# Entry
Amino acid sequence: MTPGARANQAGKILESNVDAVLTAYEYFQIGSHITKEYLLNASLLNKRYGKQVGIGNGIYNTALKVDFYVIGTPTIPGGLIIECKWQESGGSVDEKFPYLNLNIQEYYPAPTIVVIGGEGMRGGAIDWLKQQVKHNHNLLAVYTLDRFIAWANKNF
# Structure
């Protein structure tokens, strides 16, 4: 398996853990590669989510998809976006944090949590992203998977 394929697989494993948390708290996945409008209009299910949800265009005027868009969270009833970022070894994921942060601030339609994993991100990059929570009204938190689970235990 190539390093890129291995990294892609590890990212999917992180996403599957977030998926398991949502399922454990009785959220129902209504689809994958759906639009925000479709998710918002599926009102028969109070606790629902979509994966790879199209939310419109971002800072480059290109289509944006978010990893998870969750509806029905008791503390955030209008919707919650969850983004997963994995970096096992040196690479470019952490270099994309400014792009992610600006899109969250300017174009994401709901508060967002970023779940990070792996040991390859530069510490300064993670610290920088965590500091953006103070400046970005739409960035709720940056968590490792275990901290996200602890947050979900209190908020889902």
Notes: The mean pLDDT is 91. Strands lie at 28-32, 48-57, 63-71, 80-86, 112-117, 139-144. The chain has five helices and six strands.
